[in-house]
Amino acid sequence: MAATPLLELRGIGKSFGPVQVLRDVGLSVWPGEVTALVGDNGAGKSTLVKCISGIHTPDAGTVLFDGREVSIGSPRDAAGLGIEVLYQDLALCDNLDIVQNMFLGREIRWGGVLDEATMEEMAGETLRNLSIRTVASLRQPVSRLSGGQRQTVAIAKAVLWKSRVVILDEPTAALGVAQTAQVLEVVRRLADSGLGVVLISHNMNDVFAVSDRIAALYLGRTAAQVKVTDVSHAQVVELITSGTSGRSGAPS
User: Fold this and answer.
1) How confident is the model over 66-86, as pLDDT tens digits?
2) What's the pTM?
């Protein structure tokens, strides 16, 4: 494992008027690992992700990337560092094909003309490197893809653009068993290739199937960040619902 986390949050606080949503939140994301971010509705997961992605600016705390303190004031700042957030319903455009989606806003041009051949070659190579073989054609509209295929294409897009931290927001929420397994396999490959992956999920089976660490939020605070091998399903549920695992020596 690397000596320092790829992304580290220390003492993050965020309020909206009189409502304090995040209080002294800490999170470490290591390269080559999947960190599951769990918590009940209202625990602060979405606000924390928006602070990481530059949509919100924290009121307090420090963000470190590769061990150095950084300021993420906008989504452009986050993208410049290599942080990519893949939202469940907003990652792709239905009316565009796979290649167009993967290069949206970053098209390759030669003499002012789109270099379709190069873009298609790069998109295909990225999918192959992630062992994604369920897509019949790179030129089919995304609207014709299954939910699992859409998620794998969105993940491949993040890899194509050299993202270093990929945050996945409930990527399997609307998928069947086979499609969920397909997406989780790609998530694992993503981490195995050296990226830091944050998986936001309410599904404990998914969390334990693919994650290396679990970070639990409770009422806007970090309840614990632990290795998956050190906790049980029941203990994680207790962290989510009460903020403590009830076991001696549990990190908090």
Assistant:
1) 999 999 999 999 999 999 998
2) 0.88
